[in-house]
Design brief:
With about 110 residues, this protein is mainly α. It contains three helices and no strands.
Length: about 110
């Protein structure tokens, strides 16, 4: 009788340890899970961000030209932000088009 109880205790302890390990493993895997955003959502969000920077630039130029805002530093920072964003977007577009052309040249 006591041998059977020892075996059952060992078996139940093993099951509990396995369950604890499974919970830790699941938590660890959830931490490293990839962002569920798709490529198209990421691309759309990036283009919207660039468009917003262009809109801010245009608004600041209009305010500066009309005399509402005379802060040249903010205007120049806004111009540079919009310029860098547009340059990066153009560069990424060029790289994507080059990759597409390379894929199209591949023989099938």
């Amino acid at each position: 009788m006591s041998i059977r109880n020892v075996a059952m205790n060992a078996y139940s302890n093993a099951i509990q340890n396995q369950q604890k390990f499974d919970k830790k493993f699941d938590k660890t895997m959830d931490l490293h899970k990839a962002d569920p955003n798709s490529f198209s959502e990421t691309l759309t969000d990036s283009i919207k961000g660039v468009n917003e920077l262009q809109g801010q630039k245009k608004a600041m130029i209009e305010e500066f030209a009309s005399g509402k805002n005379q802060n040249v530093h903010e205007l120049m920072i806004s111009l540079q932000k919009a310029s860098v964003a547009m340059t990066m977007t153009s560069t990424v577009r060029t790289k994507v088009m080059t990759a597409y052309q390379e894929v199209m040249k591949m023989p099938f």
